[in-house]
Amino acid sequence: MSDADATAIRDDRGDWAADHLAGYLESGGARGHILDLTDVGGRNFTTHCLIRCQGRKSGRTSVKPLIYGNFGGELVIVASKGGADTHPAWYLNIRASETVDVQIATQAFEATWREPDDEERHEVWAYMTHLYPPYITYQQSTSRRIPLVMLALGRPIDVFTP
């Protein structure tokens, strides 16, 4: 999928994404953690976390809501960008940092990250495509290998604020 196509899809759903983020932040995580994504090919109980990271170039802090799974006690997020040909900025920003902040519902943590390799990656990918089947189509629409990021939760921090 071209970046332009992916941008058009995100623009079409932009208000939805902004509303989701605002509701998650304004409620302190009481809303927005679990969403019904059956209208876009997902599951009716799809879990979402928030990640907060520093821009590697801009230095600005950004918060993104992302689907997550729990695999072997670590959170997994997928750098799909809807199947675009380039990685999402949040993924590049995480790669430039040792830690990332993550909020799950009403709890937040500092987390370390890693990317699974080989057989583990295969198992994690199968798990995440089961949780959110559109990831399969996203991978088919791009030549890049969609990254998986594993997060190990560390010390608790304050929940994110708007």
Automatic annotation (TrEMBL):
One of its GO terms (molecular function) is coenzyme F420 binding. Transmembrane segments: none annotated. InterPro entries: F420H2_quin_Rdtase (IPR004378), Split_barrel_FMN-bd (IPR012349). It comes from the Bacteria. It catalyses: oxidized coenzyme F420-(gamma-L-Glu)(n) + a quinol + H(+) = reduced coenzyme F420-(gamma-L-Glu)(n) + a quinone. GO terms for cellular component: plasma membrane. Belongs to the F420H(2)-dependent quinone reductase family. This is Deazaflavin-dependent oxidoreductase (Nitroreductase family). It comes from Mycolicibacterium iranicum (Mycobacterium iranicum). The lineage of its organism: Bacteria, Bacillati, Actinomycetota, Actinomycetes, Mycobacteriales.
